[in-house]
Protein: Histidine kinase/HSP90-like ATPase domain-containing protein
Organism: Blastococcus tunisiensis
Amino acid sequence: MGRLAWPLRPLPDGRGEVWRWHLAGLHQLPEARAALRSRLGATEPPHPHEDSGGERLVLAFDELASNALRHGERPVVATVVAGSGGWLLDVSDRAPESMPSPAVDRDPAQGGMGLHLVARLSVAHGWYVDDGHKHVWACLPAAVEDRHPALT
């Protein structure tokens, strides 16, 4: 797989309802995913062949939050801004010197492909540093058919 840069970009202007989770460890992710699904109006995961914008958001949320918990410094704050037509996902941690680094030339079976996956699911993505916190973000459309690959 070729090199995919995770671009240094400011957070887009996100307007909408704000949902936020403060995460201290990986053990909190299942509960956070369930709460996000509940906010989206889904009480259970979709059927295996169902492809929904909401489930793509949950997947991106899980990937970015687990990356921050594994590779960043806690506490991790995951924020979703639910706007018209989609969601702005922002995950911050206290490791501003550690930029997001997508895996290069790695067998996908070994893991580490989360940033590649989120980049493909999003219409825009990036990261920035603010007040000693690194923020990694992605914009995801509400409707799967509205997704066009993000520009890097």
Summary: The longest strand covers residues 133-141.
